[in-house]
């Protein structure tokens, strides 16, 4: 019985000392990350469930042993009768050993959750292996937002690289259709944009460039049809930048858009063949589709110019209109002639047509 008392003591010690400490650390997870998603993930950890179950079984075994209940039946085999007679002792020995193993497993998981660098790597690995694309993604979003809010730049590089690759992986799923990301991806951009717009003093220029510069949404140097939902969130980002009076974020987007329309949405040259004394364009469908995409992209930025004018952001307009990366200078997001200006104006003021509806759906001007 003395030997069994050691296991009893171990159970009582873990219950009275270790368990309250672990519970205190667990209760601080929400305060540490300000994330319900991380707390939910921790609650589903197998180590936590195994420890709680093993602790409960150990307590039951201790109670059964203390009652000193005689064997309920006997057999004709001495070994079996001996096992039945000591079943309570065997149960408490096995349950306490399992509990101790689960305890150290639980402590290991707890350490990971309390070290952001290790937790990020673990969540990234779980995300890559998971069927659910957003389960671990949302937890990583919360860590990024918390790091922006707390001005913690230690883990931003790892997170920024992960999100860049995540957006790129989503874009690869769409070939001949508009690229539309899951809702969690748009929420990441929108919430990160707001946090970055608020922090004007200690800035992370690399992260700002990827978020406000629409690098994650549009990609780099590759074509891809932009969905209306993506345009909507791009517009919301510009509204946030204006709301928090951060012109640099708008210029970041303008710089990316300048590159995107030049390379990602570059013009496709028609390919001609002569057939039956008639000149045909073999890639007419691709040319028309690209021209439509370019026109939609330009409309968005014309509307952005109107929004800046609406808010009297004259210096921001000047910076955007004078930005170029080519020599001699070429301004891809601006009209090339007065003819284009007059044609665009005629479409916008058309009271009977549908060509001006893009101004009212998804790109509305808020009231001052």
Topology:
Layout: H1 2-27, H2 29-33, H3 36-43, H4 46-67, H5 78-85, H6 87-113, H7 116-129, H8 135-149, H9 156-171, H10 183-198, H11 205-211, H12 215-218, H13 228-243, H14 247-264, E1 272-275, E2 278-281, H15 284-310, H16 314-321, H17 338-348
List keywords for this structure.
368 residues; mainly alpha; 2 domains; two-stranded antiparallel sheet; 17 helices; 2 strands; 2% strand; elongated
Summarize the main sheet: 2 strands, antiparallel
- The overall number of domains is 2
Low-confidence stretches: none
Spatial strand sequence of the major β-sheet:
1-2
| Distance N to C terminus | 81 Å
Give the helix/strand class. mainly alpha
The best one-word shape is elongated
- Measured as a percent range, the helix fraction is 55-70%
Succession of helices and strands: HHHHHHHHHHHHHHEEHHH
Radius of gyration: 31 Å
- Let me know the number of strands: 2
Instruction: Indicate the mean pLDDT.
Output: 80
Summarize the structure.
The protein is mostly helical and 368 residues long.
Description:
With 368 residues, the protein is mainly alpha-helical. The protein has 2 domains: 112 residues, no CATH class; 244 residues. 67% of the residues lie in helices and 2% in strands. The chain has a two-stranded antiparallel ribbon with strand order 1-2. β1 and β2 form a beta hairpin. The longest helix has 27 residues. The chain starts with a helix and ends in a 20-residue tail after the last helix.
